[in-house]
Amino acid sequence: MATSGDVPGQIVTIERFILEQQSIQPEATGVLTNLLYDLALAGKIIASRTTRAGLIDILGNTGEENVQGEEVQKLDKFADRTIYRLNDHTGRLAAMASEEHPDLIPIPDRFPVGKYVLIFDPLDGSSNIDYNVSVGTVFSIYHRKTQDGWGTIEDCLQKGRELVAAGYFVYGSSTMLVYSTGHGVHGFTLDPSVGEFLLSHPNIRIPEQPKYYSVNQGYQRFWSEGVRRYTEWLQGQDGSRKVLSLRHIGSLMADFHRNLLAGGIFYYPADAKDPSQPHGKLRLLYEAIPLAFLAEHAGGYASDGRQPILDIQPTGLHERTPLFIGNRDLVEKAEAFIQEYG
Ligand code: AHG
Ligand code: MN
Ligand code: MN
Question: How far is the CA of 336 from the centre of ligand 2 (A)?
């Protein structure tokens, strides 16, 4: 933590921090800096709505279905629109892609295009909104691959290893932003009284001693042999390891964030819930890749059970993937169980 007790340590706003990070990258032009700053602003605007969700007529769903066939919550739409509107006209982006849109979101032709693509899940965990449970936003930034003109799907379908930056917001008991440009993973807490994100968790590393495992155990009967045996191993049932506590919120940003700070593993396996959904529920592009990037830069690891998430070549905007993410040794153990038992 940067500060403790009543005596504040050095107060670093996100603006100053992003600018200082830019100065350690000599090739930086300031475009990424401003893009990150716009995203921080989007997070503040979304937080201002999530914290008032019970007060204004924004709860409940809109009666529509999104591309994933799920009910769209009003706050999802608000968050989606906020991120889009802050970024459509800046000349920093060639295109955007959102979990809420079936296709690529082009930059309107009255605005200039830029060199980055922005991929985001505007509101993750939205089924939790009505119950006052933490939700989140997650984003990825890539360099465009095409040379000029409007961005294309090809610009979005890049491996996680190509990421320029990724981050997420958790709208919880406080609002936090955690992001990385590949130079450490840094966490900021929104001070609502001054409206600034302040550096609270510099250089996050996943603790070596994990505390928690996180999975929707309600789907246990759909698990493969490997995932079942792995879970028993996490529970210390064979006596070979210390017992891990189970913590599962059902809101990926909150589950990931807790395990990033406390140590542990989150998984949503391939065969959970619906055998007709062989790749699980989570989205490779919007959810798995940005969190995998953050996990690796914090000393952890993410896998689909067989290969690193960051090495997977995406083939579609809404592709799903199994996800095992957290302490490296725990994720590698999951791979070993899956390799042996399927
Ligand atoms: P989204 O709200 O963006 O559709 O994603 C929700 C995800 C994720 O946050 C969570 O881990 C998972 O759905 C929970 O799903 P289950 O209820 O199937 O466990
Ligand atoms: Mn999501
Ligand atoms: Mn979502």
Answer: 27
